[in-house]
Amino acid sequence: MTAILIVDDDKNILKLLDIHLVKQGYKVFQAKDGMEALEILRKESCDLAVVDVMMPFMDGYTLTKEIRNLYDIPVILLTAKSQIEDKELGFQAGTDDYLVKPFEPKELSYRIKALLRRYDHQADESILRTGNTTINQKSYEVQIGNRSYLLPLKEFELLSYLISHPRQVFSREHLIEQIWGLDFQGDERTVDVHIKRLRQRFSKLTDDFQIKTVRGVGYLLEVQRK
Asked: Does this model's pTM top 0.90?
């Protein structure tokens, strides 16, 4: 489910947008200031942020810069100001779009959908995702929520291969050929050892996926539908 973070010190705006976006099928997180927003982003995986400019403790421009430095998600700034100077500050901070109050919730929905399509279109093919788990095949990192993990190379390649082919059953021989190569001199127990290590690593970290044993055949990776 696509998650939207709304950041505004106006409780009425938070309530209005929460009702509207939940009806649109989004999961919504609410924050009343920038500090609370960053705390939510540290704990939760969000796909887009809607940020008010005028807030206590940390204004929307500063928060947008922080989000841009730490996360690869689009940002829409909300403001009561429409002067070109204010828009310039917003885009310099790194916002993707700019919406002036008062606005119709439907217009915000259109802008959210457009940005999500743009970011999805630009998504790197080397990135694999399932739930809150992201696998970056360029940096060899596994990210769960906002925490990153580095795996030994063969464990990483095995996990990447299985997640690339969810719900497909593979024999140990097939996995040996794909991950270790035809010249591998070891036996098929190598696969069992690496599967065991992956299960030990991730069983307590996430329920996004499970590696299951298919008796007499081999293994499959099952993704959790949410």
From this structure: no
